[in-house]
Specification:
Layout lengths: L5 H16 L3 H13 L45 H13 L3 H13 L5 H17 L3 H14 L7 H4 L5 H10 L1
Helix pairs in contact: 3-4, 3-5, 4-5, 5-6, 6-8
Length: about 180
Amino acid sequence: MIFVSKRALHCWALVAVISMLSACATVQKGVDGIVSVFDQDGAKPVAKSGQPAQPKAPSGDAPKTSPKPATSPAAAPARATSADELLAAGVRQYEDARYPEAAELLKSSLGAGLRNRTSQARAHKYLAFIHCISEREAACRQSFDRAFTADPAFALTPAEAGHPKWGPVYRSVADAR
């Protein structure tokens, strides 16, 4: 006869339920979000899923704030994470309106050495968006300038360029080049 503790039984039941629910597309997005933020140690941001979705403009003038996770990405122990994974994680945090976390990950992706100039420009673009919606126009302008420096062909989509917060700053930087 095999004896299993209640705790172990509950853990296995939870794993079974999550496995069954992960087949549902709606729940899978939530599971991917959790898995993409924390690795097995529960402390380091990593990218596990495929391509990030296109950016969406935040609604309203002020950035949304959200509670920080139990362990912030900056406090996580060092681990070999690729610059592209950090960029993808930063974009996901931006899309979830977690701007401070997104900014940390985007800066980390640049510091980790994004090799592709388009990826460098993309990281600077999201940093510019964060600065602009946080009323830091000089930093927004500087991030757009760095995006153009990284990739001279850098351009916002028409929808992005029409945003009331960063559109005018982007056009001013683009016109000055």
